[in-house]
Amino acid sequence: MTNLIVPTSGGTLAMLALGRVSYEQWLKAILPFMLMVYALSWVALFIGQVIGY
Where exactly are the transmembrane stretches of this chain (predicted)? Predict the structure, then answer.
């Protein structure tokens, strides 16, 4: 998941260049999604820890 936002990822930067999308525009679009995914992951980890999974 983090490869979508890491600026050193060659694939991400190449696709952004082909689509003529700046890195700043990409971050504005992907950041809310990434924050939601991280929050859901933390909740899932917390619940798993509480129930002893």
Answer: 29-51
Q: Which residues are CB-neighbours of 9 under 8 A, at least 6 positions away? A: 3
Please state the pTM of the whole predicted model: 0.67
Contact 41, 47 (CB under 8 A): no
Q: Give, in order, the Cα–Cα distances in Å from 31 to each of 1, 4, 27, 45, 49.
A: 11, 10, 5, 21, 27
Q: What is the pLDDT of residues 6-44, one digit of tens each?
A: 767 778 888 889 999 998 998 899 889 989 999 999 999
Give the domain range for residue 30.
Answer: 2-51
Residue 7 main-chain phi, psi, to 5 deg: -70, -15
